[in-house]
Design the sequence.
């Protein structure tokens, strides 16, 4: 069931993004920024956690899960550190992704050249 | 040539966008990536004997690695031009924007080229992600404290 849900959920989010992209003047930059905000808004009320529990990997891939991880880390740290935890824990869960992206980008930029 | 005539000529030669085809491609590509993600999680749990949380992190890193590598090799741009949102909305789009920005500005040097431009496109995602996450987390926190 996880496999079917993953396919449908991830596909549906991409479909919504593509429809916005084709029918409005918004660029991919606008849409990814909006989707991140939607992800964090959904997690503020625990809705995105429900998606992840039901869908599995398909809910972790779209950029909405980036917003989810940001707010999730902040709230987890806030439980132990109080309101300062909102600042301390913000990048706790997304650190792996951002660091990996920076390191891989650095290595591949050293090796390869731009092509057009 | 007057502006109106020019406009009509441009409209005539602009290819008609097949929105249905684009939407279907985005759905299928995005869905396949989701399916692959779930499969990778299962495989990592079996091979490395780790928890589901750790396996999820490995899966995300795998996708970032592949997107970054394929962008550097030069053929990811062509795939993005075809699948559009199907590849841009998953985490692959994030890695792709960073690597392609770094490669584009490589000839301007390591500091003012790569260093300052690598977050040119991905920066807005992080910036607005943090702003909205902080805002919503504050609301949730205050709500729980007051309740």
Sequence:
């Amino acid at each position: 069931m996880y496999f079917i849900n993953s396919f449908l959920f991830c596909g549906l989010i991409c479909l919504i993004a593509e429809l916005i992209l084709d029918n409005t003047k918004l660029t991919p930059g606008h849409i990814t920024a909006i989707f991140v905000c939607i992800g964090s808004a959904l997690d503020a009320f625990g809705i995105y956690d429900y998606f992840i529990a039901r869908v599995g990997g398909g809910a972790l891939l779209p950029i909405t899960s980036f917003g989810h991880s940001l707010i999730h880390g902040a709230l987890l740290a806030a439980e132990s550190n109080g309101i300062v935890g909102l600042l301390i824990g913000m990048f706790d869960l997304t650190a792996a992704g951002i660091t990996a992206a920076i390191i891989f980008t650095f290595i591949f930029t050293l090796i390869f050249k731009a092509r057009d | 040539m007057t502006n109106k005539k020019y406009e009509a000529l441009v409209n005539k030669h602009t290819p008609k966008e097949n929105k249905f085809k684009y939407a279907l491609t985005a759905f299928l590509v995005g869905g396949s990536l989701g399916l692959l993600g779930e499969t990778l999680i299962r495989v990592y749990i079996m091979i490395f004997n780790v928890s589901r949380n750790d396996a999820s992190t490995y899966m995300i890193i795998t996708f970032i690695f592949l997107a970054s590598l394929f962008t550097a090799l030069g053929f990811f741009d062509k795939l993005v031009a075809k699948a559009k949102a199907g590849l841009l909305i998953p985490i692959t789009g994030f890695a792709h924007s960073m690597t392609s920005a770094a490669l584009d500005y490589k000839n301007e040097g390591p500091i003012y080229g790569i260093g300052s431009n690598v977050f040119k496109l991905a920066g807005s995602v992080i910036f607005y992600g943090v702003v909205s996450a902080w805002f919503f987390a504050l609301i949730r926190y205050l709500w729980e404290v007051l309740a």
Summary: The two ends of chain A are 42 Å apart (CA to CA).
